[in-house]
Amino acid sequence: MTLTMSKVLVALSGGLDSSYTAYLLKNQGYHVDGIHFSNGLVNDDNTDLIHKISQILEIDVQFIDIQQQFEQLLDEIDIEMCHRSTPNICVLCARNIKFGYVMNYALEHGYDYLATGHYVQITETRDDVIIDRAIDQSKDQSYGFSVIPKKQLRHALTPLGKHIKTTIRRHALELGLPFIHRESHGLCFKKTGVSFTQFYNQYTKYALISGQFIEPNGTCEHHGQQLYTKGQKVHINGKKLFVKDKLSNGDIIITTRENLFENIVKITKINYMIDPDQINLAKQYQIMIRYNTVPVKCLITDITDDCLTVRTESPVFAPTSGQIGAIYDGIHVLIGGFIC
Prior knowledge:
The protein is α/β, with parallel strands linked by helices. It has helices at 16-27, 47-57, 67-82, 89-108, 142-145, 150-153, 165-175, 196-203; strands at 7-11, 31-38, 61-65, 113-115, 121-124, 129-132, 156-157, 210-215, 218-223, 233-236, 239-246, 252-255, 261-272, 284-288, 296-303, 307-317, 324-329, 332-339. A hairpin with a 5-residue loop joins strand 11 (239-246) and strand 12 (252-255).
């Protein structure tokens, strides 16, 4: 009987993490090809670098256009923002596009796995998928993976979850592996030098919602409720204040920072990584409500079909509608959902 090696399609951005992912998997004996996808909203200036990486690693690379899928995602996010929510664009892109559209593309084209340069540990057993925090917790991205259904991760590989970023960078430089040396920051679809406010003004299909900033000592006008999020700092009449709530009439309530700490977090659109029957309401878990923050000890106090309520041991800053709430048991991701 002839044994065939598993075929892996690696999402290549041109950055260190995805380039090193391809290197690792090839050295582990996989048949590796790359895929580079362009969203069509900014000029893709990494094409030459991708070709150079493919030559050095001796892998083929496919280039695909995801502009239609990406614009559909942005349209859905636009609607959410008009309804006073603050979606996590990068997490939704990972769920809907990378491990949605691109994963399906990989499987339909005969690949066994899609691999990415995310820092998270994914373990597949015969009948389950387990998500754990990365070894390098300063780079850990398990928070975003908490809302990706397990069925979408059955064919996912994330080998960097078991590595330390500083070691990866040093080894990549020793190998002479080409990659973008700047770290990725901000939003990939936004042109350099263009603020999110400028981008949103150009892209939104809806009028900006005007209203009043409301604070104990008075009011003043604002001209775009969608551009503000709970916990955001604003300067009004020389005072540093923070967004507390956005009202249906377009007004925004602002207050001082100490008034934004809460002990109750409600999560909807729940994604279970374990059997819901295994949740122990008497056990202390941990919750993370923002990327790259320290999980806070908590108790799950109530579970219904469409909502989960958490009480935190210490107050958390500005739980924000539309953002992710990820619940852990140590390094293990148990539940993910969207704060409501």
